Amino acid sequence: MKYGYVRVSTKDQNIARQIDAMNTCGENLDKVYVDKSSGKDFERDAYQEMIKDLECGDEVFIKSIDRLGRNYDQIIEQWNFLTKIKEVDLIVLDFPLLDTRDKEESLTGKFISDLVLQILSYVAQIERENIKKRQLEGIKVAKEKGIKFGRPPMEKPKNFKKAFESYEKGEMTLREAAEELNVNHVTLFKWFKKEKER
Predict the structure, then answer these.
(1) Is the domain of 178 the same as that of 103?
(2) What are the catalytic residues?
C-alpha cells in the first residue's frame, strides 16, 4: 500500500501545496493522512492512525522532512522505527536522496537515506546551537547598552497609599482594595508586603 502524510502546524494553515505534491508525484496513493497540529512530537491523531495501518513493504510519501516533525533527534528515531521496525519505505518528495526504496543500478536506498538524514540532523543541531549562542551574545550586548528585558514594572495607582492605609486599619479586605485599585489581588498583596517592609 502507498500512503501520503501531510502536516500543518495549525488548523488555519493551508494543506493544498502538500496535497498537490501528493497528487502530482506520479504515484497512485491509497490514502493520505492529514494532521493539523504541531510537529513538536509524534502524538498526532492521523500519524498514529497511519502507524497502526502500516504493514511491512508499505510506502509512505511526505513532501518535505520537516512535515514529519521539527525535532531532528525525534525524526531520526521515528525514521528508524518506520524503516527498521515497521519495515516500510519512506519517500521525501522534496529531497530525492531521502528515498529508502531500493533501486537497481542506483546508490539511493536505505543506507544513503540514513546517511543523509544523519547529516541533516547534524547540520540542524549545529544551527540550533549557533542560534542559541547568537541569542546569548545579543542579550549580553543589549544588557551592556542598558537595555532592559521583560515587562516594565506596573505602576501603582494614585490612590494606592489611601487603599493601603484602609487595608491596614481593617476597613477593607485585600480583594476589596484590589477592586478599588483595579489590580490583581496577588499583585496588590506583593505591593502591600513591600510597603510594610519599608
Answers:
(1) no
(2) 9
